[in-house]
Design goal:
Elements: H1 5-20, E1 25-27, E2 39-47, E3 50-57, H2 59-69, H3 76-103, E4 109-111, E5 115-116, E6 130-137, E7 140-150
Antiparallel strand pairs: 1-6, 2-3, 2-4, 2-5, 3-7, 6-7
Helix pairs in contact: 1-3, 2-3
Length: 154
């Protein structure tokens, strides 16, 4: 049974951020004024269906993940380089968890390598089956866009 896309995104994001990066994820409080996401990445998937998963997060969140997982000895150049690596890896884990949460364990998907986006906006949707979810990660705003582009194979 498929779960709702927004629920699947929140479940997958919570699992990835909390178990892999030791950071808390909360539903977004509409009254909150959280720092905006500054860094974005995207990746595609193909299989039973094809589509795209993209994520934007604040640099502060990436710094927390780097601090939690890597020992870089406060080197600013190393920190800047690792932000991109951490964002891509978090997106990769999020995509895998999200696809399993939404479609179940049976379908097999080929995932593209995550790509950093030069701008802070997520890519423009190329289908009408798009689900954007905003949530709170350690008191910063995070955004995930889950887009299903082709269901003909399902």
């Amino acid at each position: 049974m498929q779960v709702k896309s927004e629920q699947a995104v929140l479940e997958a994001a919570s699992r990835v951020f909390e178990t892999s990066a030791f950071l808390s994820v909360y539903p977004l409080d509409p009254e909150s004024d959280l720092p905006q996401p500054e860094q974005a990445a995207t990746m595609t998937f193909k299989g039973a269906v094809s589509g795209r998963v993209s994520m934007r997060v604040a640099a502060d969140v990436l710094d927390m993940i780097v601090d939690n997982l890597l020992d870089i000895q406060n080197d600013p150049d190393e920190l800047a380089q690792r932000r991109g690596d951490v964002l891509k890896e978090m997106l990769n884990m999020l995509c895998g968890n999200l696809l399993t949460e939404y479609f179940g364990a049976e379908p097999v998907f080929d995932l593209s390598p995550p790509e950093l986006l030069g701008e802070t906006e997520l890519p423009a949707p190329s289908s009408e089956d798009v689900h954007k979810v905003l949530f709170n990660v350690e008191n910063t705003l995070a955004e995930v866009m889950f887009e299903i582009q082709d269901r003909q194979n399902s």
